[in-house]
Amino acid sequence: MDGSVGGDPRRPQKVKTYDFVKDPPEGISSNDVLSFMGLIFSVLGLLLKIKYICWLAVYCVMIHFCNSSYREEGKQTFSLVMLAVSALVMTYMQNPHPMTWS
């Protein structure tokens, strides 16, 4: 303190202005996780021939597509969509019966 009783304890020379962060921090984003999950579910749906997993892959890939920014590469998103849709089509072609819970 400056020694006076009741004086202002703040130090104006120590004040720093806040700088806004324009870009999100680097690291793994939820969009990357969704694209990876879509890839894994597509491959598992093709290998195991389970329709629920294929629908889950399509769901993850569509969320990834909706959340992707214009800066991301479109080839990866397009290939993920095509892989998920082809897994779904191939699963229905091999077993055209509707899905059942039992």
Folded structure, characterized:
Helices cover 56% and strands 0% of the residues. Helix 1 (30-48) runs antiparallel to helix 2, helix 1 (30-48) runs parallel beside helix 3 and helix 2 (51-67) runs antiparallel to helix 3. The longest helix is centred in the last third of the chain and has 21 residues, at 74-94. It is built from three helices and no strands.
Helix and strand arrangement:
Layout: H1 30-48, H2 51-67, H3 74-94
Helix pairs in contact: 1-2, 1-3, 2-3
Keywords:
single chain, 56% helix, 102 residues, 3 helices, elongated, mainly alpha
Gap from first CA to last CA = 75 Å
Largest sheet: none
Radius of gyration: 26 Å
Number of helices: 3
Query: Which structural category do the helix and sheet elements fall into?
Result: mainly alpha
Q: How would you spell out the order of helices and strands?
A: HHH
Low-confidence stretches: none
Question: How helical, in percent, are the residues?
Answer: 55-70%
Tally the beta strands: 0
Mean pLDDT: 84
Strand percentage lies at under 5%
Overall morphology: elongated
Question: Outline of this structure?
Answer:
With 102 residues, the protein is mainly alpha-helical. Helices cover 56% and strands 0% of the residues.
